Amino acid sequence: MSNTRNNGFTMIEVAIVFVIIGLILGLAFKGRDLIAGARVKNTYAGASKIQAAIVSFHERQGRLPGDGCNAASPATASACNGLHDGLLNTAAEQAAFWYELQQQPALLSASDRNMPLGQQWHLVSAGTNLGSNTPANWIVAGPDGTSGVIDVRYACELDNLYDDGNPATGNIRSSAEVGSGAGQYRQGDDCWNPAKAAMKTLAFRLL
Q1: Is residue 77 a contact partner of residue 100, using CB atoms and an 8 Å limit?
Q2: Cross-referenced InterPro entries, in alphabetical order (predicted)?
Q3: What would the pLDDT profile of 74-120 be if each residue is shown by its tens digit?
Q4: Entry pTM
Q5: Kind and range of the H or E element at 43?
Q6: What is the domain partition of the chain in residue ranges?
Q7: CA torsion through residues 207, 45, 149, 196, sign
Q8: Would you say 142 and 151 are in contact if contact means Cβ atoms under 8 Å apart?
Q9: Are the C-beta atoms of 192 and 153 separated by less than 8 Å?
Q10: How many whole angstroms separate alpha carbon 97 and alpha carbon 95?
């Protein structure tokens, strides 16, 4: 009498396969969350580094970098002898802002303008897109701060972790609206909800 083997899968084998698939999917989602979380922390760290460089420059020169500059690449700090009003609202002042921070002694490198979210930090003065009429300087994701350039879920997480969770107030703002729908967020939200995905702006207030 010959032994025969059933070529089909047993319930235990099928269960093991599903467990393995579940573990793989779980690791994939966990890895994605870790990457997203690292990008949020690195974005905040990058903005904080720029703010620290501004403080250091101000302590040495008595003004903000770029303030009063009439040229994008001033030969010396003393060449920026225009109006020192604390607002960097001309093209020359905004270009000189980055230039002066990268000169000797260099407080920032050129790569410090690069964001983990695939954009570059730019400088703007307060505008309606920032939800404030109060004069202030901001670093924004993208060239003008008016076009949606990052996933709103990152703005939501940054705002909730490091500010007030309201896109229209505080020191971290975006063009998102307050709410729980697509492209919106509010304080205490689950920012990684896929239904929130939309491209919005991001802004950090400077001194």
Answers
A1: yes
A2: N_methyl_site (IPR012902), Pilin-like (IPR045584)
A3: 999 999 999 999 989 899 999 999 999 999 889 999 999 999 998 99
A4: 0.81
A5: helix 11-61
A6: 11-205
A7: negative
A8: no
A9: yes
A10: 5
